[in-house]
């Protein structure tokens, strides 16, 4: 006698659909009587589940096709004797299927429910939610307490990060009246992200979430403190020419620390936006997930407003060394707060972040290779880069992602290190420069509300086109104002800055809508890999533009750089609109909910 036993399965189904084929389309009383609760003198199945009692059924002359959607299946042990076994892949897990033959199951006949009663009992046990209840459930986060603790952790981390993103270019720009040091540092940092982004993404996909997140926070804070120490040292020594600054040891250390800090920040951002928030809000709760995404954007932008304004005010009243020491103190105090809030997030979410990721070390596919160690680190890194780029170019929403990448060529007509250095060298008060960056971030906060209205009115895809077109139009006018040559006067300069501030509304609108487009088109199992690779591609675009800035580092060439920046934004709008006007069948399938398609 052949026997098969499957012990300790853990099953969780979101949806289970079965359709009966052929002449067995109806369940008669005779067929139903062959459905057993136990198998006697035949093969048996031992099923242990936390949500149901043990049941054993046998089926004769019954064929079905079943589909399982959003299913987690884990089988700890399978013991089989004299039986054929096939396997099926569910997600990235391989599940053994034991093929039971009907002739063995015909040996006994036990009384049971009749066919009609059995079907009726199945139908009565399936809960049916009303449309109102479905909307309520979709808008309710899976782990609300953990989500709030996660928001607090993001607030503490983003405030320090945004303050530092404004502090270091301002402090370096005060060393010498040239864009070259800032451009060189940004260029080399982007190269590190291009190479290390896919590798870090792959490592995070195969590492425990909470320990790796805390480790990256510690690395980022340490790199920020080291960078602050190097800039303080540079301000205490005698001034030097730009070429000699690039050859100083402290500048080499500053570049290395800055690259590590940015790479850690990119990895933390991808983990928060593509992984953590999805688990805490609920992958099957779209309204709650959309609301959580909006809250994260608002936190980031509000921190940018607070961080830039705070450091700008400090820099207008105190010397750069004092301001950098205050910033370093804030970094030291915020790190234990972030670590505590991270552990609290996991605790309040009932350990959802501790759950093993599908396709983790024990269930990895053969084409991914082993986890990196000291011996194969280089080979694994190269393979991770190739795998990440291959997955990136095969994603179904590639044109939307490439439009997002083209926006990274705009390195001067946007709030950032180069614009901060440019305005500083023109003699503007640091508080005015901080206010400019804060207003750009405020436009981003407004975009989190505006984007929802755009999506309701135009649909998700056309909303992205509206944002890009709006940004391209305003930046074209801003460049025309700059090329008029009247920026030496106060009014044209303020008009130029106001146009850039308003263009941020369109940029952030597309940033928010584009994130939802990419979340829809990219499988969750590849979110970290494709997300970090996308950042690497964007960093490649930005590094190319920074290379041009290095060659044309004089402030007098700013108009030429601004023209290149506005052409990249116009190109992004053209590429996205062209993709929108020629939708493919796959695009229609992915965005079938969009009323405009």
From TrEMBL:
It comes from the Eukaryota. The keyword Plastid does not apply. It is a multi-pass membrane protein. InterPro entries: Ferroportin-1, MFS_trans_sf. It holds the Pfam family FPN1. GO terms for cellular component: membrane. It is found in: Membrane. The keyword Glycosyltransferase does not apply. The chain crosses the membrane at residues 179-201, 213-235, 247-271, 402-423, 435-454, 460-481, 493-510, 530-551, 558-581. Keywords: Ion transport, Membrane, Transmembrane, Transmembrane helix, Transport. Its main location: membrane. GO terms for molecular function: iron ion transmembrane transporter activity. Belongs to the ferroportin (FP) (TC 2.A.100) family. SLC40A subfamily. This is Solute carrier family 40 member.
